[in-house]
UniProtKB/TrEMBL annotation, chain B:
This is NADH-quinone oxidoreductase subunit H. Belongs to the complex I subunit 1 family. It is found in: Cell membrane; Membrane. GO terms for molecular function: NADH dehydrogenase activity. Keywords: Membrane, NAD, Transmembrane, Transmembrane helix. The lineage of its organism: Bacteria, Bacillati, Actinomycetota, Actinomycetes, Propionibacteriales. The keyword Membrane applies. GO terms for cellular component: plasma membrane. It is a multi-pass membrane protein. Pfam families: NADHdh. GO terms for biological process: aerobic respiration. The chain crosses the membrane at residues 6-33, 65-87, 107-130, 137-157, 169-192, 224-241, 247-267, 279-302.
Length: 189, 308
């Protein structure tokens, strides 16, 4: 792609990402704030695609739209809000939040400026591989072990947190054939 | 033919296939609904004329911006879906991650249908919106795994490659479960038939209930276009795309897609409406294991049996 076109597309995507990200804090509607954030993430995904990272870019867009759709449900469920009647501020704890985000921004910018970026375009894949090796290389076994443990922890957490257990559903001797659930399921159990 | 000309041809063809396909699907639905064939055939055009002239109305405090974005998006998303499918000439966007692209477009429907219900500022519409998300949680994961089966077999996420890999045997022959699961997903994201309780009559139309005029036309059209785009994509992924004897390849793809669309239109009101609380269990206890089992079989056949 032409360098000028590349830069223009990147600037447009970056602008959309930053502006819609900032709108999240300005808008007084929960739904609009949620989807402003979604647009911001879509623009970031678009920038990844622009850099040739097609798969991570498209997956970012997919995951973020899905997450925002679900997040809107939870936000409205816990904060009960009507688009017209209760405009509400989307910010709280402003001072710590500003300090934290400004600090993070400075940290990232310093990192970008100080990092020894590869000068030659063909050096980039080798550098990416080095990064991958440094991050994961000799820790692969640890990661492989941790992931099932983490998954088991999630399942155990859900089981412990659930107030209805299999004894409520299938009786004290677990001999009830059809579970007694407050919501009947769809497969005739 | 130059690159630019062929790109323009692809774009025009995509729009025409989608538009004509949606119109035919709506007309067929009209014929099935009765009372006469003539009435049914003219129904889409008559409805279009009626809705485009109808005055818009909205409840006080409706979030018009989000509401209108939702309606327009439902027409845009099917175009994005079809952009990666070869309809004869090369696709508009011959993406190396075409399958994921389609998946992303169908996830965008989550946001759009929810916004359609939210923007109206009406109770039934909002209930419909939440119903859709609940249904989506049940159909989306099986759909994702169903999409991976052809990609595994073709060693590619590019739709063109997947179509080419089926030159010998269409994937539906050895991936029937994934095919069915994907069709259920198509019905799901089109808010169609059994999976349409988000727009159900028990909610006075749900997410569609408050819509009027051009807004209603956009949403109804978007639903038919989603149905068509999903069917064409399914035909490309499982029915061998344009492969077939005698007829040219674009013709075969249209015939196969038309059969799928017709089947979905015929089944529309002939199956029981599945409330999300019921469909949730069907999705997670039947469709998801079926899709995973299919994926296991396909992976084994590809790696051990050397199929492709």
């Amino acid at each position: 792609m032409n360098v000028v076109v590349f830069i223009i597309v990147f600037l447009v995507l970056a602008l959309v990402a930053v502006v819609s990200g900032a709108l999240v804090f300005v808008i007084d509607s929960m739904a609009r704030a949620t989807y402003a954030l979604a647009i911001s993430f879509v623009a970031v995904g678009g920038a990844l695609v622009l850099f040739g990272l097609t798969y991570p870019g498209v997956i970012t867009i997919l995951m973020m739209i899905m997450e925002m759709a679900i997040m809107a449900v939870f936000m409205i469920m816990f904060m009960g809000m009507n688009p017209a009647l209760i405009p509400m501020s989307m910010v709280h704890g402003q001072r710590p939040a500003l300090v934290a985000s400004a600090g993070l921004f400075v940290l990232l910018v310093v990192g970008i400026l100080l990092a020894p970026w590869p000068q030659h375009p063909h050096a980039a894949p080798a550098r990416a591989r080095q990064l991958g090796q440094a991050l994961m290389g000799d820790k692969m076994l640890v990661m492989m072990t941790i992931s099932p443990v983490m998954f088991a922890t999630i399942v155990a957490g859900v089981v412990l947190a659930s107030h209805r257990t299999r004894y409520d559903r299938f009786g004290d001797d677990l001999d009830r054939r059809v579970a007694s659930d407050p919501q009947p399921g769809g497969v005739g159990r | 033919m130059t690159d630019a000309a062929s790109a323009v041809l692809s774009v025009v063809l995509t729009v025409v296939v989608l538009g004509v396909g949606g119109l035919c699907a709506a007309a067929f639905g009209g014929v099935l609904a009765g009372p006469s064939v003539r009435h049914g055939l003219t129904l889409p055009l008559a409805e279009t004329a009626r809705l485009l002239r109808q005055r818009r109305r909205s409840a006080p405090g409706a979030d018009l911006l989000l509401w209108r974005i939702a309606g327009a998006g439902l027409v845009l998303v099917p175009l994005l879906m079809l952009a990666v499918v070869p309809l004869g000439p090369p696709p508009v966007l011959d993406s190396a991650v075409g399958v994921v692209w389609f998946n992303t477009a169908d996830v965008a429907v989550w946001a759009l249908v929810w916004l359609l219900g939210w923007g109206a500022n009406a109770t039934f519409a909002l209930v419909g919106a939440f119903r859709f998300l609940a249904s989506a949680l049940a159909y989306e994961l099986p759909l994702m795994f169903a999409l991976t089966a052809p990609a595994v077999a073709a060693h590619s996420l590019r739709v063109t490659d997947i179509v080419a890999a089926q030159a010998g045997l269409p994937y539906v022959v050895w991936m029937p479960l994934a095919f069915v699961v994907l069709l259920v997903g198509v019905a799901g994201f089109s808010v169609w038939g059994s999976l349409g309780p988000a727009a159900g009559p028990d909610l006075a139309g749900g997410v569609l209930g408050e819509l009027s005029g051009p807004d209603r036309w956009l949403a109804l059209t978007g639903r038919y276009l989603l149905l068509v785009a999903g069917s064409v994509f399914t035909a490309a992924l499982f029915l061998g795309g344009g492969a077939g004897p005698l007829l040219p390849s674009w013709c075969w793809l249209l015939v196969k897609s038309a059969v799928l669309v017709a089947a979905l239109v015929v089944l529309r009101n002939r199956l029981v409406l599945l409330r999300p609380d019921r469909f949730m269990e069907i999705g997670w206890l039947i469709l998801l294991p079926a899709a995973l089992l299919q994926l296991l079989v396909v992976s084994l056949l590809v790696t051990v049996g050397g199929w492709s």
